[in-house]
């Protein structure tokens, strides 16, 4: 229990438990998204490494004759491998994931994340690198829907901890990768150093979080308690009379039928109101990742003191700084509406090349990250607030498909854009 720590007296056990859970979800968010972010930051290096292996009698940075200095393969290829498995998991897993206890899910997430770092760092061919990226995607996708669903067993403020942690993953992942490679470490050594992160995820879940008795840790059978925090339990008791008939019919079913009975009304997103959250979130992430993987690589300034690869890394880093700042803002204010217009501006910037310096792009990318972070954390906060208690676990997991679907669609569009500009 919380008060077993020397600094945490029984009188303050509730407060200590609250902060342990908030900190635990912060670390889970950070560790879960870390490999995903690192793979995107390393995308240019991964492709450049394979290009170097496959090239003969080439010197310098001569992958093509285009003034955009393109890789033969777009960095969107790495994003596609990094997001498509996540999309498949998020679209299918919410209907079957209840059969797998949370403890096994966390172990699987940690093992696949560690495997992704090892495979990419020791890869000798493009397909091996892509396989490592896919493993990172599996870990991130399974972890996100599992940990978002897990928040319903805790007080609502852990959603803010999770959101801030995912933003922290962006900053720490992109900054560590960019910083360590800038200091002279090879991409391989940098990835091997990051193996500590999957270990931190497992330790955070099993030793930092204070698990409620209703949590299905190692078995799929839940206890007779509500599985909710005290304040939510009180609200449920107020509606006990209204739900009594439904509860009696539900209890007579098997666990699997009981789960499907709760899911069936939610299959229509209009009826449950999920579309009003999922579609705007998907639109924001479509615009942002079209910039990140479709346009960032093309925003190259040859007269800068930074090389093309370094410019790309710092674009990714500044984006993640903005995401972290805005995802950590939930305790200060909430936002319901956002407008995304910077994708149009940067598209014209790539086309006409009128921006004089990379520093202007740095500011725009930072602003872009702020928009993405606001959209993510506020979406899941309002879902947790406005969804019925009995539907919340499913809704939190299912709504996570919104950003992933937007990213996947942006990746598909990025390929023809990259091909067109690199042919100029």
Task: Describe the protein.
The longest helix is centred in the N-terminal third of the chain and has 29 residues, at 13-41. Residues 1-8, 56-63, 223-251 and 253-267 have low confidence and may be disordered. It is built from 18 helices and no strands. The chain is mainly α and 424 residues long. Helices cover 69% and strands 0% of the residues. The chain is globular, with a radius of gyration of 22 Å.
Concise synopsis of the structure shown:
By secondary structure, the protein is mainly alpha-helical. The chain has 18 helices and no strands.
Helix content estimate:
55-70%
Structural Rg: 22 Å
Largest sheet: none
Number of strands: 0
**Which parts are unreliable, with pLDDT below 50 for 5 consecutive residues or more?**
1-8, 56-63, 223-251, 253-267
Q: Tell me the span between the first and last alpha carbons.
A: 63 Å
Structural class: mainly alpha
Which strand-content bin applies to the residues?
Answer: under 5%
Give the overall pLDDT as a whole number.
Answer: 78
| Number of DSSP helical runs | 18
Global shape: globular
Topology order in helix (H) and strand (E) letters = HHHHHHHHHHHHHHHHHH
Keywords: Lysosome, Membrane, Transmembrane, Transmembrane helix, Transport
InterPro entries: Battenin_disease_Cln3 (IPR003492), Battenin_disease_Cln3_subgr (IPR018460), MFS_trans_sf (IPR036259)
Membrane topology: Multi-pass membrane protein
Transmembrane segments: 25-43, 102-120, 126-154, 166-185, 191-211, 337-354, 360-383, 395-417
